Amino acid sequence: MTAPCNIAAALPRLAAERPDQIALRCPGTRGPDGLARYDQTLTYAALDRRSDAIAAGLAHHGIGRGTRTVVMVRPSPEFFLLMFALFKAGAVPVLVDPGIDKRALRQCLDEAQPQAFIGIPLAHLARRLLGWAKAAAKHVTIGRRAWLADVTLAAVEQAGAAAGPQLADTAPDDVAAILFTSGSTGVPKGVVYRHRHFVAQIDLLGRAFGLQPGGVDLPTFPPFALFDPALGLTSVIPDMDPTRPAKADPRRLHDAIARFGVDQLFGSPALMAVLARHGQPLPTLRRVTSAGAPVPPDTVAALRALLPEGAQFWTPYGATECLPVAVVEGAELQATRAATETGAGTCVGRPVPPNEVRIIAITDDAIADWRDVRVLGEGEVGEITVAGPTATDTYFNRDAQTRQAKIREGERVVHRMGDVGYFDAEGRLWFCGRKSHRVETAEGPLYTEQVEPVFNVHPQVRRTALVGVGSAATQHPVLCVELAQGVPAREWPRIERELREIGGRHPHTARIARFLRHKRFPVDIRHNAKIGREKLAVWAAQQGVTA
Ligand SMILES: Nc1ncnc2c1ncn2[C@@H]1O[C@H](COP(=O)(O)OP(=O)(O)OP(=O)(O)O)[C@@H](O)[C@H]1O
């Protein structure tokens, strides 16, 4: 019989090899200086033993193989114990970003048709008041009392304490989890992760970044923290609100990094910007990874200057549906900055093996079979597709979206990223923006990431967003502009003239005739970085910019 395909299978092995190594350190109580004491810890032995107990206890409560279970628990020892218990049990955790719009959240929860709901007391209260996940019949609370739930997690653990090792016999194709996208282009979609996707993801991430057991990680981006225990790392969970990275207190992050000799940091571009602005050196870090959205060049340069000699700054490119697709190191990113600022797009690096990345002709239609695809050559902009061990093959209960995003190629399924880009002569992938954000003008398409960086070089501009106004295929390009902080609105006529002059330097940007000042761009909650271009397009149309 073959061993189960399950990331939780790593736990008993690691617990035998390194029982006393700390798997997880959490902020816990606060000292008189206001800083977290990090007095909540879990060793590998405890993580393995206690997740066994919880897995067995959940089975007593009818949560087992295949049970779709909403998990609404903040990063804490309980979160890790519970997630590994669910994997061991072969249950299917459903994770939705708590930061998203409440209506979208409810829709996600309904769509996932969960059978169980495990959450903090506040999540149970919201479930009751707002009618979330009505189909879920089993309720477990992380609270001290079984308020609004059938049972507490502590009681579940106690019930399973004597049961011994647990590990469901999961097959590679069995569903392991449903993870919702952040929904920056619409309502989030539930991505179906199979056990083989997680196993491959750990393998690819481990190899791409050279992760070694024994390292100390500060994962500021919650879903990724889950990989640390499977890789033998020690995770230090930062003292911050994970849904508000731009508001993190850099002093607290520095304190944790210095106290535990953190050698690896994982976070969103918004968090990188916080550390870069703070400006204090980060001497223990060997590797920084920033994922989820493009990292502004100033942030890359400022953060690299704070790192010790030989440290690496990686930016993976990928999506909830497929990660990692490609990776680029900060030195290369900085070397390609000039090209980005003249309209080449953003270099996202080389595909992570064994991913096969191909560029296909742009279409908004579904493509059922790879034989109907037109593969583009070097330098041609098209839609980015990925085939490989971490490319997921379906959305949960979203057949229309699945058809739009997946192409069958013989035995395998190719994922369409919904992003546009191209390969250069050196085999590097360049990201040119989201497919749905392209502006189709009468003179041909314009891509956001080939236009905005050209204008973003203006010192009094914080960021820009290209949107289209008018009917399909003959849209008028409009550049929305957010001025840098403190720049008064009366300066706008001059800045607009200067932007027009900058645009005139390149044939593609010279086609932009309309510039609109916008006070503050709508952005996504998770990354604080993805611009809500859909909303801006509606706004631009209302400003009387038509034909
Ligand atoms: N390194 C990167 N550089 C530029 N853009 C990136 C990078 N990494 C990811 N992205 C962007 O983020 C997208 C993936 O984001 P994610 O999976 O969090 O959900 P989302 O796309 O924001 O949500 P939804 O699909 O629901 O709109 C990619 O398709 C790409 O557009």
Automatic annotation (TrEMBL):
Residues 15-396 form the AMP-dependent synthetase/ligase domain. Coiled coil: none annotated. Pfam families: AMP-binding. Signal peptide: none annotated. InterPro entries: AMP-bd_C_sf, AMP-binding_CS, AMP-dep_synth/lig_dom, ANL_N_sf, ATP-dep_AMP-bd_enzyme, OlefBLtnSyn. GO terms for molecular function: acid-thiol ligase activity. It comes from the Bacteria. PROSITE patterns: AMP_BINDING. This is Peptide synthase.
